[in-house]
From TrEMBL:
Family: Belongs to the class-II aminoacyl-tRNA synthetase family.
Name under which the protein is recorded: Glycine--tRNA ligase
Role summary: Catalyzes the attachment of glycine to tRNA(Gly).
EC number: 6.1.1.14
Matching CDD domains: GlyRS-like_core (cd00774), GlyRS_anticodon (cd00858)
Superkingdom, natural source: Bacteria
GO molecular function: glycine-tRNA ligase activity
Record domain Aminoacyl-transfer RNA synthetases class-II family profile: where: 21-366
Recorded name of the encoding gene: glyQS
Sequence positions that bind substrate: R113, E163, F210, E211, Q212, M213, E214, E320, T321, S322, S323, G324
Amino acid sequence: MAKKKTDNAHKATNQHGAGMDKIVALCKRRGFVYPSSEIYGGLSATWDYGPLGVELKRNIQNLWWREMTRRHDNIVGLDAAILMHPRTWEASGHVDNFSDPLIDCKDCKARYRADHLEPEIVASRKCPACGGEMTQPRNFNLMFTTTLGAMETSGMQLYLRPETAQGIFVNFKNVVDTNRVSIPFGIAQVGKAFRNEITTRNFIFRTCEFEQMEMQYFVKPGTEDEFFAYWKEERLRWYVEQLGIERDNLRTEPHGPDALAHYAKEACDIEYRYPHGWEEMEGIHSRTDYDLSRHGEFCGKEIQYLDPQTQERYVPYVVETSSGLTRAVLVTLLDAYREQPLENGDVRTVLRFHPNVAPYRVAVLPLMKKDGLVEIATELKRDLEEDYNVFYDQQGSIGKRYRRMDEIGTPFCITVDPQTKTDNSVTLRLRDSMEQRRIPLSEVADAIRLESRNYQARA
């Protein structure tokens, strides 16, 4: 039998009762995620982020960036090129180690990763699906290749980067020489990565093109265990406090000795309870001095750090936090999804996004398109847009508009009605409780700010 769980994504449900099929349908219907190149039949394992999806993704990215580079005085940012010198990937070990052992069934053509099958199945070469004969394991490199130069036959072969970390390591000396940083310090980066995945599955969980949020934290050898423990707790806290992920749906899972990457001394995953089971959403790795030492060896220039206090030279150790931005989008959608029975027998679909990540923080809704309500609502929208992404909607009944906002996760709705013209008050509606209350028009911005600040305690 296979070691890994079979892909039952369209049958399984998550802890709130949402199968992956419901998330996929909602994302397409409301403009979060579309199949890439859909008009041509689509392209496997690639996805496009629609108007709501790109706002959700950008909000998560901005929260991560603020957490790393604003709330930690000793972390700076970087944006390295996707295309790098091919020696980079020789030094990093990707050319030799970044491959999957694959086995194909000669009869039913099913393909398996050999390391995901029980050893006796690999040895017997019997297909788990049909019992047919299978091939011997063959290594399949996961890096995409391209050519730099006018002629494909004579150009330099390059790789689309399979991770963003190496762009940080090769710029370590540049950052130290041009910025006032001292160990311990970190370098953070968000960017695209590409992997020629054989088994893409579960919507945007595993794709060929994705975005990473990575931070490499450089420390003095001997202190790496302390910082490994620190960053494990910090990253877990961030998902709960900033993204609003339920703590019971998160866990940390250490890597056993046999599961460690070739560069790692210690590693653990922050895992989420997906509909298909517990799997990784972020990795924390203690990488020792492997990366800087290897790049120093391959470029012929030793990469060291000079301690300005002690004048000691050494190759720093690294503690890495590596999170998938696109995977964080999926986790946020799954964790926020609710189906709530109503008193009239209907069911309300709602995305309970934390206000920090919601594509729209607030919706402004004039009750009618007459009596000057549109003008008041439009002016209010302009005022709120200084601080928030605001949705404006004047079409349909107010009940249907509320339901639309619930389904895309807008935390707050402001309704402008005839009473607004008499006493300058509006209705504030809260998404999660559906509570409605009158507040002064002049206090709308403050009310949204206060409700957003107190959201975590209420949730």
